[in-house]
Amino acid sequence: MTDKRFYLTTPIYYVNDKPHIGHAYTTLACDVLARFKRLDGYEVMFLTGTDEHGQKVEAAAKKAAVSPQEFTDSVSQNFRDLTDRMGFSNDQFIRTTEPRHYRASQKIWQLLMDRGHIRLDKYAGWYSVRDEAFYTEAELVDGMAPTGAPVEWVEEPSYFFDLSNWQQGLLDHYEANPDFVAPQSRFNEIKSFVSGGLKDLSVSRTSFAWGVPVPGDSEHVMYVWLDALTNYLTATGWAEQGGAAAGSLYDRLWPADLHMVGKDILRFHAVYWPAFLMAAGLPLPKRVFAHGWWTNEGQKISKSLGNVIDPLALIEEYGLDQTRYFLMREVPFGRDGDFAKQSMIQRINSDLANDLGNLAQRSLSLIAKNLDGVMPAFPGLDDPADAALITRADALLDQLRDAMDRQAFHEGLRDIWEVIAEANRYIDTAAPWALKKTDPARMAEVLAVLAEAVRQFAILVQPFMPEAASRLLDQLGVAGTERGMDQLGGAARIKAGQTLEKPSGVFPRYQEKEEG
Ligand code: MSP
Description:
The protein is 48% helix and 15% strand. By secondary structure, the protein is α/β, with parallel strands linked by helices. The protein has a domain at 341-487: Isoleucyl-tRNA Synthetase, Domain 1, CATH 1.10.730.10. It has a 6-stranded parallel sheet with strand order 3-2-1-12-13-7, sandwiched between helices. The longest helix is centred in the C-terminal third of the chain and has 30 residues, at 341-370. The chain is elongated. The protein binds 5'-O-[(L-methionyl)-sulphamoyl]adenosine. 5'-O-[(L-methionyl)-sulphamoyl]adenosine (MSP) is lined by residues 11-14, 22-23, 25-26, 51, 228-229, 231, 261-262, 264-265, 293-294, 301. 5'-O-[(L-methionyl)-sulphamoyl]adenosine is lined by residues 11-14, 22-23, 25-26, 51, 228-229, 231, 261-262, 264-265, 293-294, 301.
């Protein structure tokens, strides 16, 4: 076991609807990071799952004329299927309807109660079922939630969490932990929200029943966000093992290293969740990253506009690795971005098919043709052009590590592609195809430098495009045990003398289908 550990989470998804691109995007970002950390020698725990309680889900079940449990069983399965189809490498898939999650939710409730942070009162105010959030009169815009969701007036007995007492505690925590929330602009919004003062938070409901029962008061179910946020603890075995001897899963994993969320749910993760944890006397997660939202060809994505993007349809049309690459490369992570078909095609044909695909295919087929498929020996780097390319390739690991630790996925890929461009210039200048007759020894050196560069690119892109990278590494004769990040930065090189399999392109061009 290693002490390099990394625990990261996606939001758990509401099961009122089919999975769409937003869901796939958040989980994909976590998948890329989880894969990178595993390849970089970490013990990783990558958690995703479904958020199954609350009024929204209860209403969706009613509409489908089935019990909430039957309804959530079937919709939760859609999310699991998406996980498989997208090749996500999550270690657990949690459902908030599992008994272990009831235990954890009730345990945190009890702790908050015992420590004097929950009291019974009455709630009178606005509630949005779509957002599962409470709003004050002042927050409403034209009678709607600030998110545009409809609101309803709610008046009922409710337990309250003393959020107002945590303003200073939160501000102190933000001050002491400048990387707690990213991107910085979003962190500033959170700080100013908290500086503006916090009101106590209603944390139970009596007007519906689909939730975790409040311990000791069966009239109430827990507010769905208190229940939902607790999933991050549930999965560590906290209810069973919290406070147990060193070495328990909880002890190894908590606090989480990263909660990845969309910008719309940052407040729940960066304000309410840390306040609950502080009040319960538990350590806070290290970081919350809020990513942006996708639009579709410039338009806001919505069911009513009928422009929801189905991630499975994207995979079908463009390929899994291509879709993964596009989503991580096209938009600076943290910003909003637009899904445009032409940009997708451009990325596939230019970055993948031309830049990396052709480079690999040209290099490998020259080895096949001119060297009988036998990997040449890696040269001493006396030639300045060889040294320049390999030095840049060797530097990529540190660059990628840094980008990954900032969740700057697009930067990581951009850095890799800059060196791929350099390798393409190298092959054009060195023109190994012309050296066969004139200087076969030099040709072998050039091909060795190229094979080494491609080996490094293939290892580096594994987290983003696991399938294509693995096929490329197979073609380069790289053993399964030699694909970790510890094989980069000059620590290893191509192995001379092996006979390589016949190369075949791993990044096909996208051909637009003829109309009609
Ligand atoms: N159940 C809550 C999360 C609880 S976490 C303790 C929830 N679920 S959700 O299913 O509505 O949304 C999940 C995620 O999808 C959010 O992070 C949200 O930002 C993301 N997206 C929804 N639409 C999106 C886009 N159009 N683009 C990118 N992400 C989007 O909220």
